[in-house]
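Fill in residues.
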């Protein structure tokens, strides 16, 4: 279930009522861009359920409704035969990704597929934004989004060394966690022993119509504590 701050339950492709077009309902994360296929069971073996806090790092888009205070969501990771095929499931909605034993990455939609259309309010009727920046009314309020989610799984021992997820999760993801003497997460009699997941959520956004609008990006640090 999503936390009280998370719009994910309201932002699936199946249902997008007009009232949710405000940015308070915002982007979200993980479930926003998933297609409307729902499964009654997890694909593969569960890796754990994590409660995430998403903290904004870069809000580079001029939309009225951006969750600048961050948001929360709960996700369940699973892997098929240990990977690389893996999934993140939020509210019974799942997206596919890749898992290498410690790191998960998912790009939605896939690079070969078209970006997903979404509605954002852009107050540009007079050709200028509220902050005085010029804009193009031809852009309308329909935009295309590509979302990337990356996460590194940590054991309790690794989490104690890291203390908190870094402000630059891209570097953290690329480097992995290889502290000498501390083993990465592994599967045992009690399942996958990851206690935490650190990473980044990136939203690349461009207009759906041909207009004078520079593509923009929203970036969030995500810090997930395992709940089960």
């Amino acid at each position: 279930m999503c936390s009280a701050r998370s719009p994910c339950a309201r932002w699936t492709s199946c249902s997008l009522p007009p009232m949710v077009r405000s940015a308070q309902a915002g982007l979200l994360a993980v479930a926003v861009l998933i297609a409307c296929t729902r499964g009654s069971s997890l694909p593969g073996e569960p890796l754990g359920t994590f409660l995430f806090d998403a903290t904004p790092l870069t809000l580079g888009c001029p939309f009225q409704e951006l969750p600048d205070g961050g948001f929360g969501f709960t996700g369940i990771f699973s892997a098929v035969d240990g990977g690389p095929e893996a999934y993140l499931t939020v509210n019974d909605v799942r997206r596919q990704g890749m898992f290498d034993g410690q790191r998960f990455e998912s790009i939605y939609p896939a690079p070969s597929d078209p970006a997903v259309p979404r509605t954002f309010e852009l107050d540009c009727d007079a050709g200028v934004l509220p902050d005085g920046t010029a804009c193009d009314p031809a852009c309308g309020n329909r935009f295309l989004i590509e979302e990337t989610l990356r996460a590194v799984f940590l054991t309790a021992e690794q989490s104690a060394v890291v203390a908190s997820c870094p402000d630059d999760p891209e570097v953290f993801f690329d480097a992995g966690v290889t502290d000498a003497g501390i083993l990465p997460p592994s599967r045992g009699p009690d399942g996958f022993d990851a206690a935490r997941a650190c990473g980044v959520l990136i939203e690349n956004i461009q207009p759906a119509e041909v207009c004078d609008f520079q593509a923009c990006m929203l970036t969030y640090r995500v810090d997930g504590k395992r709940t089960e």
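Residues 1-37 have pLDDT under 50 and may be disordered.
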